[in-house]
Specification:
The chain has 364 residues and is mainly alpha-helical. The chain has 16 helices and 2 strands. A hairpin with a 2-residue loop joins strand 1 and strand 2. 71% of the residues lie in helices and 1% in strands. A two-stranded antiparallel ribbon has the order 1-2.
Length: 364
């Protein structure tokens, strides 16, 4: 099949309309359950969570917001269908994965100092750091509670996979933070970190619905491999958007990842490339780190826009942007290859492929 380009307009991609309809359907199936589960939280955590999910604004008034892209919930529903069950069988897994994902977002935003998500102020900015921590913890607890309430052998297997994925997600976040304080990080280290931070939960989303539907470990593991590679492709695209994405589209500040001093794939690939631009970038980042150390601070955004633009230009000149776009394609191909050993109806396989294509060509 032809390989899509990472910066192609999503709306023009073959199959995009079908994927958007599938994502909408996933929200329709999972959001009512998600809202019911979140309503278990005591005040003010229920209100804080509702704000985070986009159901209310900062004043508490209802909004037309949704709960995100719904890629992970859709994967869980498709996995249930791949195992021969109805999509509804995968709903508890879909909601549990979405709860864990949002637990990580609440904590990440606070740790990274991000003030914007989905074009709105983040929870810690509106409700304070304490509420961001507490609500994040509560969402993780709800995810485990929801699965174990099913009280079936399949639910216990699903819960084990979710907990393992969550531990790996936390490992990845710890690696990501530690890398911010290093002058250089290898591409292999970056891929390991992103496999943990993003790939593990997407991998779980791809298997948990199948497990709840009674699939054996061989089929679930095959779907999990698909999700891991899809997660790495997803993160590679995200890393490009984290530097060169348009704020009006991404909902984040310009040069978002550069402001955080993140060693994302474009940065790591540029540093490993060699050549004048790579050397200049290494020198610049070393000077940044020394300045932060001299001030005994983790200040990440004390530069003007021209300096951020200069760093982005060096990364691109060194080849970091192109390498990352190509890596998204490589991971996309590996994801599709992982499906070859998994038996499933042809129409469900086509939906997995269409979603993988959609993830690689997205712009936000």
């Amino acid at each position: 099949m032809p390989r899509p380009e990472p910066d192609t307009d999503t709306a023009a991609t073959p199959g995009a309309a079908e994927v958007l309809a599938l994502l909408d359907h996933a929200r329709e199936l999972t959001n009512p359950v998600l809202r019911t589960v979140v309503d278990r939280l005591v005040p003010p955590m229920d209100t804080v969570a509702a704000y985070h999910f986009g159901w209310i604004d900062a004043q508490g008034s209802p909004t037309d917001g949704d709960s995100g892209k719904a890629v992970r919930p859709l994967l869980s529903l498709l996995a249930a269908e791949a195992a021969g069950a109805s999509p509804e069988t995968g709903v508890p897994g879909a909601v549990a994965v979405e709860l864990v994902h949002n637990f990580s977002l609440l904590h990440d935003d606070l740790m990274d100092g991000d003030e914007q998500r989905r074009h709105r102020d983040t929870v810690w900015k509106v409700h304070g750091p304490a509420q961001a921590i507490l609500v994040g913890d509560a969402l993780f607890a709800l995810a485990c509670e929801l699965l174990l309430e099913l009280d079936t052998p399949e639910a216990a297997r699903a819960a084990r996979r979710l907990n393992t994925a969550t531990r790996r997600l936390i490992d990845g976040q710890a690696q990501d933070i530690s890398y911010e304080h290093r002058e250089s990080v290898s591409v292999a280290e970056c891929l390991e970190m992103e496999g943990n931070k993003t790939g593990a939960l997407l991998a779980c989303a791809c298997s948990i619905g199948a497990v709840l539907a009674g699939a054996g470990d061989e089929a679930a593991d095959g779907l999990e491999r698909f999700g891991l590679h899809l997660g790495l492709a997803f993160q590679a695209v995200d890393d490009v958007l984290g530097i060169w994405g348009e704020p009006a589209v991404t909902g984040k500040q310009t040069w978002s990842d550069l402001r955080q001093r993140k060693k994302s794939l474009p940065v790591c690939a540029a540093l490993a490339a060699g050549g004048p631009a790579s050397a200049e970038l290494a020198k610049t980042l070393a000077a940044d780190a020394k300045r932060a150390d001299d001030r005994n601070t983790d200040a990440k955004s004390d530069f003007d826009e021209e300096e951020f633009a200069a760093r982005a230009a060096l990364i691109e000149e060194a080849g970091g942007r192109r390498w990352t776009q190509e890596e998204a394609q490589r991971q996309h191909e590996s994801a599709l290859a992982s499906l070859d050993g998994v038996k499933m109806p042809d129409d469900i396989r086509e939906r997995f492929v269409a979603l993988a294509d959609f993830v690689v060509v997205r712009r936000h």
